[in-house]
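Possible regression after last week's pipeline update?

I re-ran a chain I had predicted before the update to compare outputs. Posting the input and the new output here so someone can diff against the archived version. Not blocking, just want to make sure nothing changed silently.
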Amino acid sequence: MSALMILQLCIVLAALWLGSRYGSLALGAISGIGLAILVFGFGMKPGTPPTDVIYIIIAAVTCAGIMQASGGMDWLIQLAEKLLRKHPARITFLAPLCTFFLTVLVGTGHVVYTLMPIICDIAIKKGIRPERPCGIASIASQIGITCSPIAAAVVAFITISGANGYAITIPKVLMVTVPACLLGIFIASMASYKRGKDLDKDPEFQERIADPEQREFIYGSTATTLNQKIAPESKRAVYIFFGALLVIVFFAVFQELLPSYESIKAIKNAPEVQLLGSRVKISADQLANLGVSVDGITKIEFTPLKMNIVIQIVMIAAAALMIIFCKASPKKAVSGPVWQSGMVAVVAIYGIAWLADTYFANYLGEIQNMLAGMVEQYPWSIAFAFFLVSVLVNSQGAVVVAMLPLAYNLGIDGWILLGVLPSVYGYFFIPNYPSDIATVNFDRTGTTKIGKYLLNHSFMMPGLIHTLVACIVGYIIAHLYHSMGWI
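New output (post-update):
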């Protein structure tokens, strides 16, 4: 590893670290500074921005944002609250399942902010230490991203895998990630069930509620959505959204039903063609891009409609149906947290992935030589790289887009990468993610906390347990399916 390569890597890491310090749009924007230094300062060839993934995120977030504007998200939260209040003693197990499935359905973990105060309230009223359900519930809200058919991480995995010769569908990805992550959640919930002291035995908490004002603050208010009236249009929007998901999954399973289109492809190793009356020569690829067919140089193929296009069409059409038939306000959608957080993710993925692709593409040979031995002997060890990058970039989709091409170039099999896909969630390690910060603020008892030494926070234990269990189980499931010829 040359001194120049190390220097440029430090520039990449510095851009990611500085972006994470500022958060939000800064992740993508400051990555642009790193990209500019590499390209203009060192003359590196710029990589390729992940446009396909970005388009899908925009379509999915637009659809989810419109559903939220219609009130459909309120209905989902209300249904989750009814379940939790019906079984308050089991909240440490049920709360993470609710946040997990909300994320799976909507494709973003930012839908849980309304539910988290309710989880805290139920735990307090039942005398359960809120840290127990809140810690794992916040973790589970992000875990669901690798299990959602419309999440950026899943779509990026499918798109990049297909481009690298590993054809995988959404249902096959979910066949691995869903059971692996659910088992990880269950084990982490078990570890959280008796975590910390009960509220009636916690001297710090008892001292706090000895103050009448603090006692009123903790026990006096009730967070609930049960008194909220849900309009028929809101429920209709949810049905449309679920219908769109079913259509996407249907076409993912039965891709032979998708239309095919005639396209001109260049023949590999075809000679260049000299234009008549000119010294200019044109390659087979250039002819194909121009739509010109020449015998022996190009060939005509029928290409089926790709799933990334299917997802975009279905999501945008579903959003339009909700606007027309469910009284969903586009202006309200744009100002909502789901749409805004999704657009932030777009910018983050755009900048981070472009910066990472530029660096890795220019040093691919060197990186392959450095990691070849370890990856050949322990290909699953790529999970550590995924996890470490996630700690820096706070985006599972960005980790997949930035690191997956490198993993394929290192020769790692697609089924192995699918098995360790849960490792792209590592940004709980440093507790600066919005859902974790919000959870700390929602817990009126103060039991859910960051910790004096930063890393001793309420999300570390459930996060590490889940990631370890999910990766091990995911690897075993993927190996089993691969040996049976399913993936």
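Follow-up from reviewer: compared with the archived run. Residues 80 and 86 are 10 Å apart (CA to CA). Marking as no regression found.
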